[in-house]
Design brief:
GO terms for molecular function: DNA nuclease activity; hydrolase activity, acting on ester bonds; metal ion binding. The protein contains nine helices and eight strands. It has helices at 35-44, 57-68, 89-101, 122-139, 151-160, 177-185, 202-208, 240-251, 255-269; strands at 19-24, 47-54, 73-77, 105-114, 143-148, 168-170, 189-192, 216-218. Strand 3, helix 3 and strand 4 form a beta-alpha-beta unit. It binds zinc ion (ZN). Zinc ion (ZN) binds next to loops.
Length: 275
């Protein structure tokens, strides 16, 4: 028997059609060829809403209308730390105008610090992060946070900008119980990605058992971070079920409960109507 036969396909989980995939990059060239099929598979796998994360004003302008034509895709927009040097007063004004004009833009992000790849100098990243946080405050927008190898710096800036108890989603959480606690105590939300399916991520596994589902959402970050059993292949929203399954197994809860509760949390965070 081929090993492929043993892989449960997403639709076999028979999850209710309420799921919220909170972080996808469907405007990336990886999905240029087969977006229709990708969305169909997501729907068949119980994904009712997909959050598309635009990383620049240009990406939004190029792809917004094409993706708006699809049902149940919502948007976020923020300048990623890799592109921090592009943030200036003109870009911030453009972003502000887009948020005013498009009610489907539900959050500002992903923004933050990435001291792992360090594609922009740290001081430039910090300035871009602070400028965009200021815009989020001004417009009263939820924030989707990107943080890689910069936890203490990020917490210090958010403290300084008075973000405690404001709506903030720590995207692609990869930390342990201590970092989860730091986030929860500040009133923020945590998004669990595909690497929770990797056997060696024991600190993350421990954290997942401690985060209340009322503060947890699920994401793929596709095309990246593909969960087991498709690790190494392109990721897509339909694979959210594998992340839900891993979370459910770690917590000893039914996958349906994780699926529905995380969806409720995401719908509330992004102010989405019921599926
Ligand atoms: Zn992302």
């Amino acid at each position: 028997m081929s090993s492929k036969k043993n892989i449960p396909l997403p639709e076999t989980f028979a999850l209710p059609h309420v799921g919220v995939e909170t972080h996808a990059h469907l405007d990336f060239p990886d999905f240029a060829e087969d977006l229709d099929q990708v969305l169909e598979r997501a729907g068949n796998a119980g994904v009712a809403w997909i959050g598309n994360i635009f990383l620049s004003v240009e990406a939004y302008q190029a792809h917004q209308s094409r993706l708006s034509a699809r049902q149940n895709i919502f948007f976020t927009l923020g300048i990623h730390p890799h592109e921090a040097s592009t943030v200036n007063s003109g870009v911030l004004a453009d972003m502000n105008g887009l948020f005013v004009g498009d009610a489907n833009l539900r959050a500002l992000g992903e923004i933050g610090l990435d001291l792992y790849w360090n594609r922009s100098p740290a001081d430039v990243q910090i300035r871009a992060f602070r400028d965009q946080l200021a815009l989020a405050r001004e417009r009263d927008l939820p924030v989707v946070l990107h943080c890689r190898q910069a936890e203490q710096e990020t917490l210090a800036i958010l403290q300084d900008m008075d973000f405690t108890d404001r709506p903030l989603l720590w995207h692609c959480f990869g930390g342990g119980p201590d970092l989860a606690e730091e986030i929860l105590v500040r009133g923020w939300h945590i998004s669990i990605p595909g690497p929770v399916t990797f056997p060696k991520n024991t600190a993350l596994h421990e954290a997942v058992t401690r985060i209340p589902l009322s503060r947890m959402v699920l994401e793929t970050d596709c095309p990246f971070l593909t969960p087991v059993p498709f690790r190494g292949k392109r990721n897509e929203p339909a694979y959210l079920c594998y992340t839900a399954e891993a979370v459910a197994n770690l917590r000893g809860e039914p996958i349906r409960q994780v699926w529905e509760s995380c969806a409720n949390t995401a719908r509330e965070f992004f102010s989405l109507p019921p599926a």
